[in-house]
Polysaccharide pyruvyl transferase domain-containing protein
Amino acid sequence: MKVLIHGFYGAGNAGDDAILHSIINTLKDLDKEVEVTVTTRSNNISAYYDQENTTSILGSDIKGITSKLKDCNLLIVGGGGLFQDYNSFSPENIFINQQGALNYYSYPIILAKMLNVKTMLYAVGIGPLYQEDSKQTMRWIAEIADNITVRDTYSYELLRKLGVTKHVLAADPAIKLPSKLSTVAKKLTKNSPNELNIGLNMRNWSYAEEELIKIQGNLLNYLNSIANKYAIKYYIMPFNKLPSEVKKAKELAELLNGNAEVITYDNSPERYKYVCGKLDLMIAMRLHASIFAIYEGVPSIGISYDGKVGQFFNELQLNDYCFEFNNPNYDKLYEKIEDCLKRPTFHKKIQQNKRKGLIEREDNNRKSLIEICELNSNDK
């Protein structure tokens, strides 16, 4: 079987890389001889770090994508929050300018259906969709896709409101990605049982820069105030290789009064996930920082800069561990952080007990993939 995977890959993002690794793991389980090509945003950053051979092609290379599809059995688009119109959407530019998310992720689906290639939207997030053109396009793309799994209830309901009925509720594939031993974790070795390792993830967010400055400043002041009280060491984890994100991580470390160290994302997502498992608490903006921590048995407190973060905590029924980015209740945020430090075992058990439902639901991605592979076999 030959598969083309189209998503937000080759951008140096640990979360998206984790999704890709998980999808390829599932494909390999179903067909050990599967040949995988991954579309990437850049030729300079790897999207896949394992030993299995994969090939890559620029996602903006329409001629190259068309050629690959002619030789493929299946197109997978996903996973992650791909179908949204933060940067607006112009239907007339769908094959001309792929800067917008809907443009970039929709055009290979159209090509695949023109070439009679089976298509699956794999664990995708849908929305926000602000424009009517975006909603109409999303409905049509969903209608021509063969199988669809979505990773959260919000996306499921949004598609349902658009009149789509074929989609299945699943979960983010990164949930099941196994961690792998990382030598970087040695940095988190404690000198005494009372020491606490706290992971911190803040990201650049150009859509709300003033709010970012405010919450970052307030949070850092609070973290500095409790560092000595609890013998804390902070580990800044950018979850992205972009120089701007690494720079931000280093700036955060300096603002934490020399009591912090940056752990860059230099290796595979499996090893970065392993490092998260050595923390006592994660405080994170990025969705996959919380996913990595919680599914490695570490409590996480989310800062919901994007709806997908709040949706994840809502899916786990852990809403009181997630705080709005634009207008957080700082008193409750600080209380939650401090209570997690005072009662780590209690909070660890609460979050661990909530994980099972999404683990079971994630298997719907595999079931849908098996179904579409069987359809391919029957068509031969």
Q: What stands out?
A: The chain is about 45% helix and 20% strand. The chain has two domains: 2-177+358-379, 183-355. The longest helix spans residues 356-379. The first strand starts at residue 2 and ends at 6.
